[in-house]
Amino acid sequence: MSPTAQRRVLLAAVCGLASCLLLLVLTLPAQRRGAAGAAGGAGGSSSDNAPFFSRVADCSQQLLQQRDWTPAELQAVAARLLTTDARTAAAQAPDGGKAAASGAGGSGSSSGSGSGSSSGSSSSSSYLHLDRLGYDMEAQLRQQVFCEEAFPLMELEAAAAAEGGGGGGFASGGGVAARRLRPGVTMYVYAGDDEVSRTIRDGAGWENELLTEVLWALRQPLPPHALASQRQQEQQKQQQEQQREQQHRRSAAAAAAAAAAAASDGAASLFVAVPTVAQPPAAAATNAGLSAAATAVPPLFVDVGANVGWFSVNVAAEGFAVAAFEGMASNVALVRASVCASGGSSSSSGSSSSSENSTAAAPAPGLGGRLRLYAFGLGSRDTSCFLFSDINNRGDGITMCDVADEAAALAKVPRGYALRGRLPIRRMDDVLLQRQRQQQEGALGDLSRGPAALPSEVKVLKVDVEGYEPHVLGGLGTLRVWYIATEFNPVLLSGVNSGYRPVQLLEDLLERRYRLSTAGFRGPWLSPEEVKRLAADASARKAPLSIYAAHWDLFPRAPHQLAEQAPQPAPTPAAAAAATTPSGPKR
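-> C-alpha coordinates emitted (587 positions)
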Protein backbone atom coordinates (compact mmCIF):
# COMPACT_ATOMS: atom_id res chain seq x y z
CA MET A 1 0.00 0.00 0.00
CA SER A 2 1.38 3.41 -0.95
CA PRO A 3 2.11 6.05 1.73
CA THR A 4 -0.75 8.18 0.42
CA ALA A 5 -3.20 5.33 0.78
CA GLN A 6 -1.89 4.59 4.25
CA ARG A 7 -2.46 8.19 5.30
CA ARG A 8 -6.00 8.09 3.93
CA VAL A 9 -6.82 4.91 5.81
CA LEU A 10 -5.36 6.33 9.03
CA LEU A 11 -7.31 9.57 8.62
CA ALA A 12 -10.54 7.65 8.03
CA ALA A 13 -9.92 5.55 11.13
CA VAL A 14 -9.27 8.62 13.29
CA CYS A 15 -12.40 10.35 12.00
CA GLY A 16 -14.47 7.25 12.66
CA LEU A 17 -13.15 6.94 16.19
CA ALA A 18 -13.83 10.62 16.89
CA SER A 19 -17.38 10.26 15.59
CA CYS A 20 -17.99 7.26 17.84
CA LEU A 21 -16.66 9.11 20.89
CA LEU A 22 -18.84 12.14 20.11
CA LEU A 23 -21.92 9.93 19.70
CA LEU A 24 -21.13 8.21 23.00
CA VAL A 25 -20.79 11.53 24.88
CA LEU A 26 -23.99 13.00 23.45
CA THR A 27 -26.07 9.87 24.14
CA LEU A 28 -25.01 9.24 27.73
CA PRO A 29 -27.97 8.85 30.08
CA ALA A 30 -28.81 12.00 31.99
CA GLN A 31 -28.30 10.17 35.29
CA ARG A 32 -24.69 9.35 34.51
CA ARG A 33 -23.99 12.90 33.38
CA GLY A 34 -25.45 14.24 36.61
CA ALA A 35 -23.38 11.84 38.71
CA ALA A 36 -20.19 12.82 36.90
CA GLY A 37 -21.03 16.49 37.35
CA ALA A 38 -21.49 16.07 41.11
CA ALA A 39 -17.94 14.72 41.35
CA GLY A 40 -16.56 17.55 39.27
CA GLY A 41 -17.80 20.56 41.22
CA ALA A 42 -20.80 22.84 40.89
CA GLY A 43 -19.21 25.34 38.53
CA GLY A 44 -18.21 22.98 35.74
CA SER A 45 -20.45 19.95 36.22
CA SER A 46 -21.62 18.09 33.17
CA SER A 47 -25.19 18.16 34.47
CA ASP A 48 -25.09 21.86 33.63
CA ASN A 49 -23.83 21.13 30.14
CA ALA A 50 -26.72 18.91 29.07
CA PRO A 51 -29.34 21.67 29.29
CA PHE A 52 -26.87 24.09 27.69
CA PHE A 53 -26.54 21.76 24.70
CA SER A 54 -30.32 21.62 24.52
CA ARG A 55 -30.43 25.41 24.49
CA VAL A 56 -27.88 25.54 21.67
CA ALA A 57 -30.01 23.08 19.72
CA ASP A 58 -33.14 25.15 20.40
CA CYS A 59 -31.37 28.16 18.90
CA SER A 60 -30.55 26.25 15.70
CA GLN A 61 -33.52 27.59 13.76
CA GLN A 62 -32.63 31.19 14.59
CA LEU A 63 -28.99 30.64 13.70
CA LEU A 64 -30.01 28.95 10.44
CA GLN A 65 -32.06 31.98 9.47
CA GLN A 66 -29.35 34.48 10.35
CA ARG A 67 -26.10 32.83 9.27
CA ASP A 68 -27.09 29.78 7.18
CA TRP A 69 -25.88 27.26 9.74
CA THR A 70 -26.67 23.63 9.04
CA PRO A 71 -27.62 21.16 11.80
CA ALA A 72 -24.36 19.31 11.20
CA GLU A 73 -22.35 22.51 11.69
CA LEU A 74 -24.28 23.35 14.85
CA GLN A 75 -23.60 19.88 16.22
CA ALA A 76 -19.89 20.33 15.54
CA VAL A 77 -19.93 23.63 17.43
CA ALA A 78 -21.70 22.00 20.39
CA ALA A 79 -19.19 19.16 20.40
CA ARG A 80 -16.37 21.66 20.44
CA LEU A 81 -17.97 23.21 23.51
CA LEU A 82 -18.65 20.11 25.54
CA THR A 83 -15.71 17.76 25.00
CA THR A 84 -12.02 17.82 25.74
CA ASP A 85 -9.33 15.20 25.96
CA ALA A 86 -7.84 13.76 29.15
CA ARG A 87 -4.68 15.84 28.88
CA THR A 88 -6.65 19.10 28.89
CA ALA A 89 -8.76 17.90 31.82
CA ALA A 90 -5.66 16.91 33.80
CA ALA A 91 -3.99 20.24 33.08
CA GLN A 92 -7.03 22.11 34.35
CA ALA A 93 -7.30 20.05 37.53
CA PRO A 94 -5.29 21.47 40.46
CA ASP A 95 -4.22 17.98 41.61
CA GLY A 96 -3.65 16.53 38.15
CA GLY A 97 -6.79 14.43 37.99
CA LYS A 98 -9.38 15.40 40.58
CA ALA A 99 -10.66 18.81 39.60
CA ALA A 100 -12.40 21.04 42.08
CA ALA A 101 -14.58 24.01 41.33
CA SER A 102 -12.39 26.98 40.56
CA GLY A 103 -14.90 29.79 41.00
CA ALA A 104 -16.14 32.51 38.72
CA GLY A 105 -12.79 33.70 37.50
CA GLY A 106 -10.83 30.46 37.20
CA SER A 107 -7.36 31.34 36.12
CA GLY A 108 -8.38 34.39 34.19
CA SER A 109 -10.26 32.66 31.38
CA SER A 110 -12.28 35.00 29.24
CA SER A 111 -15.84 35.99 30.00
CA GLY A 112 -16.31 33.48 32.74
CA SER A 113 -15.38 30.53 30.56
CA GLY A 114 -13.40 29.24 33.49
CA SER A 115 -16.35 29.44 35.85
CA GLY A 116 -16.11 25.87 36.98
CA SER A 117 -13.83 22.93 36.42
CA SER A 118 -13.52 19.73 34.53
CA SER A 119 -15.13 16.61 35.86
CA GLY A 120 -13.24 14.00 37.80
CA SER A 121 -13.07 11.58 34.89
CA SER A 122 -9.56 10.73 33.80
CA SER A 123 -10.55 9.69 30.28
CA SER A 124 -12.87 12.45 29.12
CA SER A 125 -14.49 15.64 30.34
CA SER A 126 -17.64 17.65 29.75
CA TYR A 127 -16.01 20.91 30.74
CA LEU A 128 -17.74 23.84 29.03
CA HIS A 129 -15.22 25.51 26.71
CA LEU A 130 -17.08 28.59 25.51
CA ASP A 131 -13.75 30.33 24.98
CA ARG A 132 -13.01 27.87 22.15
CA LEU A 133 -15.68 29.58 20.07
CA GLY A 134 -13.94 32.96 20.10
CA TYR A 135 -14.95 36.17 21.83
CA ASP A 136 -17.80 37.09 19.47
CA MET A 137 -19.60 33.74 19.43
CA GLU A 138 -19.15 33.38 23.18
CA ALA A 139 -20.71 36.80 23.78
CA GLN A 140 -23.65 35.97 21.51
CA LEU A 141 -24.39 32.60 23.11
CA ARG A 142 -24.15 33.96 26.65
CA GLN A 143 -26.58 36.75 25.74
CA GLN A 144 -28.97 34.28 24.12
CA VAL A 145 -28.97 31.92 27.10
CA PHE A 146 -29.41 34.82 29.53
CA CYS A 147 -32.47 36.10 27.67
CA GLU A 148 -34.02 32.64 27.69
CA GLU A 149 -33.16 31.55 31.23
CA ALA A 150 -32.33 34.43 33.58
CA PHE A 151 -34.17 37.44 32.19
CA PRO A 152 -37.71 36.25 33.11
CA LEU A 153 -36.62 36.13 36.76
CA MET A 154 -35.24 39.68 36.58
CA GLU A 155 -38.51 40.86 35.04
CA LEU A 156 -40.37 39.46 38.02
CA GLU A 157 -37.93 41.06 40.46
CA ALA A 158 -38.22 44.47 38.79
CA ALA A 159 -42.02 44.18 38.82
CA ALA A 160 -41.96 43.31 42.53
CA ALA A 161 -39.76 46.33 43.27
CA ALA A 162 -42.10 48.60 41.28
CA GLU A 163 -45.08 47.35 43.29
CA GLY A 164 -43.34 48.11 46.57
CA GLY A 165 -42.18 44.62 47.36
CA GLY A 166 -38.55 45.68 47.19
CA GLY A 167 -37.46 42.88 44.90
CA GLY A 168 -34.67 41.49 47.01
CA GLY A 169 -32.09 38.85 46.34
CA PHE A 170 -30.20 40.51 43.50
CA ALA A 171 -28.34 43.27 45.30
CA SER A 172 -28.20 44.15 48.96
CA GLY A 173 -30.56 46.97 49.70
CA GLY A 174 -33.08 46.88 46.92
CA GLY A 175 -32.99 44.40 44.01
CA VAL A 176 -33.42 45.71 40.46
CA ALA A 177 -35.51 48.35 38.76
CA ALA A 178 -36.44 49.03 35.15
CA ARG A 179 -36.80 52.37 33.38
CA ARG A 180 -38.18 52.93 29.90
CA LEU A 181 -35.79 55.27 28.09
CA ARG A 182 -37.78 55.49 24.85
CA PRO A 183 -40.27 53.34 22.94
CA GLY A 184 -38.75 49.89 22.55
CA VAL A 185 -35.78 50.59 24.85
CA THR A 186 -35.90 49.63 28.54
CA MET A 187 -32.93 49.80 30.87
CA TYR A 188 -32.37 47.72 34.00
CA VAL A 189 -30.51 49.24 36.95
CA TYR A 190 -30.00 48.64 40.66
CA ALA A 191 -32.94 49.58 42.85
CA GLY A 192 -30.53 50.81 45.54
CA ASP A 193 -26.90 51.08 46.66
CA ASP A 194 -25.66 52.61 43.40
CA GLU A 195 -25.21 56.25 42.43
CA VAL A 196 -25.38 55.79 38.65
CA SER A 197 -28.59 53.76 38.96
CA ARG A 198 -30.15 56.38 41.22
CA THR A 199 -29.70 59.16 38.66
CA ILE A 200 -31.11 56.94 35.90
CA ARG A 201 -34.11 55.92 38.02
CA ASP A 202 -34.77 59.57 38.84
CA GLY A 203 -34.87 60.40 35.13
CA ALA A 204 -31.83 62.68 35.11
CA GLY A 205 -29.50 60.29 33.30
CA TRP A 206 -25.77 60.03 33.89
CA GLU A 207 -23.09 62.35 32.47
CA ASN A 208 -25.37 63.59 29.71
CA GLU A 209 -22.76 66.06 28.45
CA LEU A 210 -20.37 63.19 27.77
CA LEU A 211 -23.11 61.21 26.02
CA THR A 212 -23.86 64.22 23.81
CA GLU A 213 -20.20 64.49 22.81
CA VAL A 214 -19.97 60.76 22.06
CA LEU A 215 -23.00 60.88 19.77
CA TRP A 216 -21.69 64.02 18.05
CA ALA A 217 -18.35 62.35 17.29
CA LEU A 218 -20.02 59.16 16.04
CA ARG A 219 -22.10 61.16 13.57
CA GLN A 220 -19.17 63.07 12.09
CA PRO A 221 -17.89 61.86 8.70
CA LEU A 222 -14.15 61.64 8.37
CA PRO A 223 -12.52 64.53 6.50
CA PRO A 224 -11.00 63.77 3.06
CA HIS A 225 -7.41 63.98 4.27
CA ALA A 226 -8.15 61.41 6.99
CA LEU A 227 -9.61 59.09 4.36
CA ALA A 228 -6.46 59.59 2.31
CA SER A 229 -4.36 58.60 5.32
CA GLN A 230 -6.51 55.51 5.74
CA ARG A 231 -6.13 54.66 2.07
CA GLN A 232 -2.36 54.93 2.38
CA GLN A 233 -2.37 52.52 5.32
CA GLU A 234 -4.54 50.07 3.39
CA GLN A 235 -2.15 50.26 0.45
CA GLN A 236 0.75 49.47 2.77
CA LYS A 237 -1.16 46.42 4.02
CA GLN A 238 -1.74 45.36 0.42
CA GLN A 239 1.96 45.66 -0.32
CA GLN A 240 2.75 43.48 2.69
CA GLU A 241 0.24 40.89 1.50
CA GLN A 242 1.77 40.95 -1.98
CA GLN A 243 5.20 40.40 -0.47
CA ARG A 244 3.87 37.40 1.46
CA GLU A 245 2.36 36.00 -1.73
CA GLN A 246 5.65 36.44 -3.56
CA GLN A 247 7.45 34.66 -0.75
CA HIS A 248 4.92 31.83 -1.04
CA ARG A 249 5.54 31.55 -4.79
CA ARG A 250 9.29 31.40 -4.25
CA SER A 251 8.83 28.70 -1.61
CA ALA A 252 6.56 26.73 -3.94
CA ALA A 253 9.09 27.02 -6.77
CA ALA A 254 11.90 25.83 -4.49
CA ALA A 255 9.76 22.91 -3.34
CA ALA A 256 8.99 21.92 -6.92
CA ALA A 257 12.67 22.10 -7.84
CA ALA A 258 13.61 19.90 -4.88
CA ALA A 259 10.96 17.38 -5.86
CA ALA A 260 12.15 17.33 -9.46
CA ALA A 261 15.75 16.81 -8.36
CA ALA A 262 14.70 13.96 -6.10
CA ALA A 263 12.66 12.37 -8.87
CA SER A 264 15.69 12.34 -11.17
CA ASP A 265 17.56 10.19 -8.64
CA GLY A 266 15.95 6.75 -8.45
CA ALA A 267 17.30 5.92 -5.00
CA ALA A 268 16.62 9.33 -3.49
CA SER A 269 13.08 9.38 -4.84
CA LEU A 270 12.20 6.54 -2.46
CA PHE A 271 12.87 8.72 0.57
CA VAL A 272 12.23 12.30 -0.55
CA ALA A 273 8.60 13.42 -0.64
CA VAL A 274 7.31 16.50 -2.34
CA PRO A 275 7.46 19.31 0.25
CA THR A 276 4.09 20.66 1.29
CA VAL A 277 3.79 24.42 1.04
CA ALA A 278 0.91 26.00 2.91
CA GLN A 279 -1.36 28.17 0.84
CA PRO A 280 -1.18 31.88 1.69
CA PRO A 281 -4.25 33.51 3.23
CA ALA A 282 -6.56 35.22 0.82
CA ALA A 283 -5.84 38.90 0.37
CA ALA A 284 -8.29 41.18 2.11
CA ALA A 285 -8.55 43.47 -0.92
CA THR A 286 -7.92 43.28 -4.63
CA ASN A 287 -5.36 45.29 -6.57
CA ALA A 288 -8.10 47.63 -7.66
CA GLY A 289 -8.16 51.09 -6.14
CA LEU A 290 -9.81 51.43 -2.76
CA SER A 291 -13.05 53.34 -2.77
CA ALA A 292 -13.94 55.79 -0.05
CA ALA A 293 -16.73 53.53 1.18
CA ALA A 294 -14.29 50.67 1.65
CA THR A 295 -11.75 52.71 3.58
CA ALA A 296 -13.86 54.97 5.78
CA VAL A 297 -14.43 54.21 9.44
CA PRO A 298 -17.61 52.37 10.52
CA PRO A 299 -19.40 54.05 13.44
CA LEU A 300 -18.19 51.75 16.23
CA PHE A 301 -18.38 52.82 19.87
CA VAL A 302 -16.27 50.92 22.42
CA ASP A 303 -17.41 51.30 26.03
CA VAL A 304 -14.73 50.14 28.49
CA GLY A 305 -16.15 50.08 32.00
CA ALA A 306 -19.76 49.94 30.84
CA ASN A 307 -21.13 49.83 34.42
CA VAL A 308 -24.91 49.33 34.14
CA GLY A 309 -24.82 50.23 30.44
CA TRP A 310 -26.04 53.83 30.28
CA PHE A 311 -23.73 54.83 27.41
CA SER A 312 -23.87 51.48 25.59
CA VAL A 313 -27.66 51.24 25.61
CA ASN A 314 -28.20 54.85 24.52
CA VAL A 315 -25.61 54.70 21.74
CA ALA A 316 -26.94 51.37 20.44
CA ALA A 317 -30.47 52.80 20.53
CA GLU A 318 -29.24 55.50 18.13
CA GLY A 319 -28.29 52.78 15.64
CA PHE A 320 -24.52 52.55 16.15
CA ALA A 321 -22.48 49.40 16.70
CA VAL A 322 -21.34 49.03 20.32
CA ALA A 323 -18.71 46.81 21.92
CA ALA A 324 -19.20 47.01 25.69
CA PHE A 325 -16.70 45.65 28.23
CA GLU A 326 -17.76 45.11 31.84
CA GLY A 327 -16.34 42.64 34.33
CA MET A 328 -18.58 42.95 37.41
CA ALA A 329 -21.08 40.08 37.29
CA SER A 330 -24.05 42.04 38.63
CA ASN A 331 -23.43 44.88 36.15
CA VAL A 332 -23.17 42.34 33.32
CA ALA A 333 -26.55 40.89 34.29
CA LEU A 334 -28.16 44.34 34.18
CA VAL A 335 -26.75 45.18 30.74
CA ARG A 336 -27.84 41.81 29.38
CA ALA A 337 -31.31 42.34 30.84
CA SER A 338 -31.52 45.70 29.08
CA VAL A 339 -30.65 44.02 25.78
CA CYS A 340 -33.26 41.30 26.38
CA ALA A 341 -35.93 43.89 27.18
CA SER A 342 -35.01 46.03 24.16
CA GLY A 343 -34.99 43.62 21.27
CA GLY A 344 -33.41 40.37 22.38
CA SER A 345 -30.13 38.77 21.37
CA SER A 346 -30.05 38.74 17.58
CA SER A 347 -26.59 37.89 16.30
CA SER A 348 -26.80 39.95 13.14
CA SER A 349 -24.47 42.91 13.13
CA GLY A 350 -25.18 46.29 11.65
CA SER A 351 -21.50 47.12 11.48
CA SER A 352 -20.83 44.98 8.45
CA SER A 353 -23.45 46.59 6.26
CA SER A 354 -23.68 50.15 7.49
CA SER A 355 -22.53 53.07 5.42
CA GLU A 356 -18.90 53.46 6.27
CA ASN A 357 -18.73 57.24 6.33
CA SER A 358 -22.32 58.23 6.98
CA THR A 359 -23.19 61.05 9.37
CA ALA A 360 -25.80 58.96 11.18
CA ALA A 361 -26.43 55.29 11.71
CA ALA A 362 -29.61 53.70 10.41
CA PRO A 363 -31.73 52.60 13.39
CA ALA A 364 -32.77 48.95 13.39
CA PRO A 365 -35.22 47.15 15.67
CA GLY A 366 -33.72 45.76 18.85
CA LEU A 367 -30.38 46.25 20.55
CA GLY A 368 -29.15 42.65 20.25
CA GLY A 369 -27.74 43.12 16.77
CA ARG A 370 -25.80 46.25 17.68
CA LEU A 371 -24.72 45.91 21.33
CA ARG A 372 -22.17 43.17 21.92
CA LEU A 373 -21.27 42.72 25.60
CA TYR A 374 -17.99 41.12 26.66
CA ALA A 375 -18.05 40.05 30.31
CA PHE A 376 -14.43 40.83 31.13
CA GLY A 377 -12.12 43.80 31.51
CA LEU A 378 -9.42 45.18 29.24
CA GLY A 379 -5.76 45.78 29.94
CA SER A 380 -2.27 45.55 28.48
CA ARG A 381 -1.97 41.76 28.97
CA ASP A 382 -4.07 38.69 29.70
CA THR A 383 -4.36 38.27 33.45
CA SER A 384 -6.86 37.93 36.29
CA CYS A 385 -7.61 40.61 38.88
CA PHE A 386 -10.28 41.38 41.48
CA LEU A 387 -12.97 44.05 41.68
CA PHE A 388 -14.14 45.93 44.77
CA SER A 389 -16.49 48.87 45.18
CA ASP A 390 -18.11 51.20 47.70
CA ILE A 391 -20.93 49.53 49.63
CA ASN A 392 -23.12 52.54 48.72
CA ASN A 393 -22.05 52.61 45.05
CA ARG A 394 -21.71 48.95 44.15
CA GLY A 395 -21.56 49.21 40.35
CA ASP A 396 -18.48 51.45 40.28
CA GLY A 397 -15.79 48.76 40.41
CA ILE A 398 -12.12 49.41 41.20
CA THR A 399 -9.51 46.98 39.88
CA MET A 400 -7.06 45.20 42.19
CA CYS A 401 -4.30 43.14 40.59
CA ASP A 402 -1.13 41.43 41.78
CA VAL A 403 -2.80 39.58 44.66
CA ALA A 404 -2.35 35.86 45.10
CA ASP A 405 -5.89 34.82 45.96
CA GLU A 406 -9.25 35.97 47.28
CA ALA A 407 -8.06 36.02 50.89
CA ALA A 408 -5.23 38.39 50.00
CA ALA A 409 -7.66 40.57 48.04
CA LEU A 410 -10.09 40.73 50.97
CA ALA A 411 -7.27 41.83 53.26
CA LYS A 412 -6.56 44.82 50.98
CA VAL A 413 -10.15 46.03 50.55
CA PRO A 414 -10.57 49.36 52.41
CA ARG A 415 -13.18 49.88 55.11
CA GLY A 416 -16.55 50.77 53.61
CA TYR A 417 -15.88 48.76 50.44
CA ALA A 418 -16.77 45.20 49.44
CA LEU A 419 -15.06 42.64 47.22
CA ARG A 420 -17.18 41.97 44.12
CA GLY A 421 -15.39 39.03 42.51
CA ARG A 422 -12.73 38.18 39.96
CA LEU A 423 -12.05 40.16 36.80
CA PRO A 424 -10.56 38.41 33.75
CA ILE A 425 -8.46 40.83 31.69
CA ARG A 426 -7.87 40.73 27.92
CA ARG A 427 -6.26 43.04 25.35
CA MET A 428 -8.57 45.17 23.21
CA ASP A 429 -6.73 44.48 19.97
CA ASP A 430 -6.91 40.72 20.60
CA VAL A 431 -10.68 40.92 21.04
CA LEU A 432 -11.59 43.26 18.18
CA LEU A 433 -9.18 41.72 15.69
CA GLN A 434 -9.58 38.05 16.66
CA ARG A 435 -11.93 37.01 13.86
CA GLN A 436 -10.01 39.04 11.30
CA ARG A 437 -6.77 37.30 12.27
CA GLN A 438 -8.43 33.88 12.31
CA GLN A 439 -9.83 34.52 8.86
CA GLN A 440 -6.42 35.49 7.52
CA GLU A 441 -4.90 32.37 9.06
CA GLY A 442 -7.73 30.15 7.81
CA ALA A 443 -8.43 29.02 11.38
CA LEU A 444 -12.15 29.79 11.65
CA GLY A 445 -13.31 26.39 10.44
CA ASP A 446 -16.89 25.65 11.52
CA LEU A 447 -17.13 29.07 13.22
CA SER A 448 -16.76 31.07 10.00
CA ARG A 449 -20.53 31.71 9.91
CA GLY A 450 -20.78 33.07 13.42
CA PRO A 451 -21.53 36.68 14.39
CA ALA A 452 -20.20 39.36 12.08
CA ALA A 453 -16.74 40.60 12.99
CA LEU A 454 -16.58 44.04 14.55
CA PRO A 455 -14.87 46.85 12.62
CA SER A 456 -11.12 46.94 13.06
CA GLU A 457 -11.21 50.68 13.74
CA VAL A 458 -12.89 52.50 16.60
CA LYS A 459 -14.71 55.76 15.99
CA VAL A 460 -15.15 56.62 19.69
CA LEU A 461 -13.56 54.94 22.71
CA LYS A 462 -14.89 55.69 26.20
CA VAL A 463 -12.71 54.53 29.11
CA ASP A 464 -13.86 54.90 32.72
CA VAL A 465 -12.27 52.16 34.83
CA GLU A 466 -11.39 53.94 38.06
CA GLY A 467 -7.63 54.31 37.65
CA TYR A 468 -6.97 51.33 35.35
CA GLU A 469 -7.05 53.54 32.22
CA PRO A 470 -3.28 53.33 31.46
CA HIS A 471 -3.51 49.55 31.12
CA VAL A 472 -6.50 49.78 28.77
CA LEU A 473 -4.61 52.16 26.48
CA GLY A 474 -1.64 49.80 26.64
CA GLY A 475 -3.77 47.10 25.00
CA LEU A 476 -4.73 49.12 21.91
CA GLY A 477 -1.82 47.80 19.87
CA THR A 478 -2.22 48.93 16.26
CA LEU A 479 -5.95 49.67 16.52
CA ARG A 480 -6.96 52.99 15.01
CA VAL A 481 -9.05 55.07 17.42
CA TRP A 482 -10.29 58.49 16.30
CA TYR A 483 -11.84 59.88 19.49
CA ILE A 484 -11.16 58.96 23.13
CA ALA A 485 -13.16 60.08 26.16
CA THR A 486 -11.57 59.10 29.46
CA GLU A 487 -11.61 60.04 33.11
CA PHE A 488 -8.54 61.64 34.68
CA ASN A 489 -8.68 60.83 38.39
CA PRO A 490 -5.31 61.56 40.05
CA VAL A 491 -6.23 59.80 43.30
CA LEU A 492 -7.20 56.52 41.64
CA LEU A 493 -4.45 56.67 39.01
CA SER A 494 -1.78 56.81 41.70
CA GLY A 495 -3.64 54.46 44.05
CA VAL A 496 -4.35 51.65 41.58
CA ASN A 497 -0.94 51.88 39.89
CA SER A 498 1.98 51.81 42.30
CA GLY A 499 4.59 54.45 41.46
CA TYR A 500 2.51 55.90 38.62
CA ARG A 501 2.42 59.66 38.08
CA PRO A 502 -1.10 60.75 37.00
CA VAL A 503 0.29 63.13 34.37
CA GLN A 504 1.67 60.08 32.53
CA LEU A 505 -1.85 59.26 31.30
CA LEU A 506 -2.12 62.62 29.54
CA GLU A 507 1.45 62.39 28.26
CA ASP A 508 0.64 58.99 26.78
CA LEU A 509 -2.31 60.46 24.88
CA LEU A 510 -0.11 63.25 23.54
CA GLU A 511 2.50 60.73 22.40
CA ARG A 512 -0.24 58.82 20.60
CA ARG A 513 -0.94 62.00 18.60
CA TYR A 514 -4.12 63.22 20.26
CA ARG A 515 -5.20 66.75 21.03
CA LEU A 516 -6.74 67.14 24.49
CA SER A 517 -9.62 69.19 25.84
CA THR A 518 -11.66 69.28 29.04
CA ALA A 519 -14.75 70.72 27.31
CA GLY A 520 -15.53 68.33 24.46
CA PHE A 521 -14.45 66.86 21.14
CA ARG A 522 -14.70 70.31 19.54
CA GLY A 523 -12.18 72.03 21.80
CA PRO A 524 -10.84 74.40 22.98
CA TRP A 525 -7.59 72.45 22.82
CA LEU A 526 -4.81 72.43 25.37
CA SER A 527 -1.16 72.99 24.57
CA PRO A 528 1.38 70.53 26.05
CA GLU A 529 2.30 73.12 28.68
CA GLU A 530 -1.35 73.62 29.61
CA VAL A 531 -1.78 69.86 29.89
CA LYS A 532 1.03 69.66 32.45
CA ARG A 533 -0.39 72.56 34.46
CA LEU A 534 -3.84 70.98 34.34
CA ALA A 535 -2.50 67.67 35.65
CA ALA A 536 -0.61 69.39 38.46
CA ASP A 537 -3.65 71.44 39.47
CA ALA A 538 -5.99 68.41 39.39
CA SER A 539 -3.51 66.38 41.44
CA ALA A 540 -3.25 69.15 44.02
CA ARG A 541 -7.04 69.47 44.30
CA LYS A 542 -7.53 65.68 43.97
CA ALA A 543 -10.37 66.43 41.58
CA PRO A 544 -11.33 64.12 38.69
CA LEU A 545 -11.73 65.52 35.18
CA SER A 546 -13.22 64.37 31.90
CA ILE A 547 -10.63 64.36 29.11
CA TYR A 548 -11.62 64.46 25.44
CA ALA A 549 -8.99 63.42 22.90
CA ALA A 550 -9.22 63.83 19.10
CA HIS A 551 -6.60 62.30 16.81
CA TRP A 552 -4.31 64.67 14.94
CA ASP A 553 -5.33 63.13 11.61
CA LEU A 554 -8.80 64.64 12.03
CA PHE A 555 -7.32 68.11 11.63
CA PRO A 556 -6.64 69.57 8.19
CA ARG A 557 -3.18 71.04 8.71
CA ALA A 558 0.15 70.12 10.23
CA PRO A 559 0.43 70.49 14.02
CA HIS A 560 2.68 73.57 13.90
CA GLN A 561 0.13 75.35 11.68
CA LEU A 562 -2.94 74.57 13.77
CA ALA A 563 -4.98 77.24 15.45
CA GLU A 564 -7.49 76.48 18.17
CA GLN A 565 -10.14 74.69 16.10
CA ALA A 566 -12.28 71.60 16.18
CA PRO A 567 -11.67 68.54 14.02
CA GLN A 568 -12.83 69.30 10.48
CA PRO A 569 -15.24 66.73 9.04
CA ALA A 570 -16.58 66.87 5.53
CA PRO A 571 -18.84 69.95 5.47
CA THR A 572 -22.51 69.06 5.99
CA PRO A 573 -25.46 71.20 7.07
CA ALA A 574 -25.99 69.02 10.12
CA ALA A 575 -22.38 69.43 11.21
CA ALA A 576 -22.55 73.18 10.70
CA ALA A 577 -25.71 73.40 12.79
CA ALA A 578 -24.06 71.44 15.60
CA ALA A 579 -20.98 73.64 15.81
CA THR A 580 -21.87 75.07 19.21
CA THR A 581 -19.58 73.80 21.95
CA PRO A 582 -21.50 72.37 24.93
CA SER A 583 -20.65 73.11 28.50
CA GLY A 584 -18.04 70.90 30.16
CA PRO A 585 -18.99 67.71 31.95
CA LYS A 586 -20.14 67.95 35.53
CA ARG A 587 -17.66 66.63 38.06
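The radius of gyration is 26 Å.
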